[in-house]
């Protein structure tokens, strides 16, 4: 059995609930102060603003908890998941199928994942469909659209959820990464996501469903040798935030799942040997002057830095799958889920709100 690990406790559910409660608490305080002032000014009552605050708070928090925990029924709802080659996409497809959703599980390459494809088919119900879906292929995208449209559950007006779980991690210093690798990473992690969403939005809009974008905490945390991954994550999140504003008029939710650094690094890297070979190819493709300036010793050091992202025990997917499932089944999902450890949350907080010089001192090796 592969070992599972986390770098710290996950308290993301607590933070999600706190985020939900901030506005009701502020509203309760403001309403209590205003109402108490009016009562006292008009001489109607000498009611304490604190007592009014407690009254409003108990009502607003109770309504918020009810609102926060509402769930949709799975019957008659269809979900398309990309990147089921990965542990995350594969596990999510199984879970949503178990919950009663009609699941369309897209594999980037079914021929290279025959064992996984067969295993998912055997584990799933008759509602689960396995599809070839390379999100960088226009042919695959339109073929999938036609198949999904023809195989929606009876009575379903469209697609309830589109989950982008596809990921391709390119590692290496920004100066080293060849343009072909930059383009490939951008095509899978951003351009393909945007194109697939464009094609499927009419189906999602009919259901007033939701788009789920799987990003990474690296979108907010600069990290050496992972610059391409950071850039793609930031682009995806900015694009998703704009899409959310545009889709509000249609009742479509756009949810960003910001996974932890450890989870995204160790879970979605498909082949350790390929990653390391890719790094060596980067070195070979550098011009002689750049190789001379970096030197073979520094290159070897960077290779070791890459290995720590590709080796080690498999990450525990429990928190990520919980966030992904909530994004699908909650009637009123959060705009952003961040299933990360306290250490990662603190690092993102420092990166977002403190001077960059302080971040560099604390976190740059």
- Give the averaged pLDDT, no decimals: 86
Computed over alpha carbons, the radius of gyration is 24 Å
Q: CATH fold name of the largest domain, please?
A: Rossmann fold
- Number of helical segments? 13
Estimated share of beta-strand residues: 5-15%
> What is the 3D shape?
globular
CATH class of the largest domain: Alpha Beta
Biggest beta sheet summary: 7 strands, parallel
* CATH architectural group of the largest domain: 3-Layer(aba) Sandwich
Question: Mind explaining what this structure looks like?
Answer:
With 365 residues, this protein is α/β, with parallel strands linked by helices. α7 links the parallel β6 and β7. α6 packs parallel to α7. 59% of the residues lie in helices and 11% in strands. The N terminus is likely disordered. It has two domains: 59 residues, no CATH class; 286 residues, Rossmann fold, CATH 3.40.50.720. Keywords: Membrane, Transmembrane, Transmembrane helix. This is Bdh1_0 protein. It holds the Pfam family adh_short.
Short description:
The protein has 365 residues and is of the alpha/beta class.
Can you lay out the helices and strands and say which pair or pack?
Blueprint: E1 4-5, H1 12-42, H2 49-69, E2 78-82, H3 87-99, E3 102-107, H4 114-123, E4 128-132, H5 138-150, E5 161-164, H6 179-207, E6 210-216, H7 227-247, E7 253-259, H8 261-267, H9 272-285, H10 288-310, E8 314-315, H11 318-329, E9 336-337, H12 342-353, H13 356-363
């Amino acid at each position: 059995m592969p070992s599972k690990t986390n770098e710290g406790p996950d308290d993301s559910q607590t933070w999600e609930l706190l985020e939900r409660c901030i506005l009701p608490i502020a509203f309760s305080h403001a309403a209590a102060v205003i109402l108490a002032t009016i009562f006292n000014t008009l001489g109607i009552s000498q009611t304490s603003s604190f007592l009014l605050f407690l009254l409003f708070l108990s009502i607003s928090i109770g309504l918020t908890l009810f609102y926060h925990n509402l769930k949709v029924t799975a019957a008659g709802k269809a979900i398309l998941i990309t990147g089921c080659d990965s542990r995350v996409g594969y596990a999510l497809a199984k879970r949503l199928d178990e919950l009663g959703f009609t699941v369309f599980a897209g594999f980037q390459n079914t021929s290279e994942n025959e064992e996984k494809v067969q295993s998912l088919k055997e584990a799933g119900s008759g509602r689960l469909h396995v599809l070839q879906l390379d999100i960088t292929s226009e042919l695959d995208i339109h073929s999938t659209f036609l198949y999904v449209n023809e195989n929606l559950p009876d009575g379903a007006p469209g697609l309830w959820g589109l989950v982008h779980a596809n990921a391709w991690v390119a590692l290496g210093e920004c100066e080293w990464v060849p343009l072909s690798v930059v383009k490939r990473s951008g095509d899978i992690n951003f351009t393909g996501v945007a194109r697939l969403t464009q094609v499927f939005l009419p189906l999602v809009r009919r259901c007033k469903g939701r788009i789920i974008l799987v990003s990474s905490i690296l979108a907010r945390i600069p990290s050496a040798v992972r610059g391409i991954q950071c850039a793609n994550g930031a682009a995806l999140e900015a694009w998703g935030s704009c899409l959310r504003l545009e889709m509000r008029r249609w009742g479509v939710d756009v949810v960003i799942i910001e996974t932890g650094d450890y989870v995204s690094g160790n879970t979605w890297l498909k082949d350790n040997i390929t990653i390391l070979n890719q790094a060596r190819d980067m070195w070979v493709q550098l011009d002689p002057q750049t190789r001379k300036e970096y030197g073979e010793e520094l290159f070897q050091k960077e290779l070791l830095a890459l290995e720590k992202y590709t080796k080690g025990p498999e990450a525990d997917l429990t928190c990520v799958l919980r966030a992904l499932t909530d994004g699908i089944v909650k009637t009123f999902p959060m705009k952003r889920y961040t299933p990360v450890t306290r250490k990662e949350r603190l690092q993102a907080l420092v990166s977002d709100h403190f001077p960059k010089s302080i971040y560099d001192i604390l976190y740059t090796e």
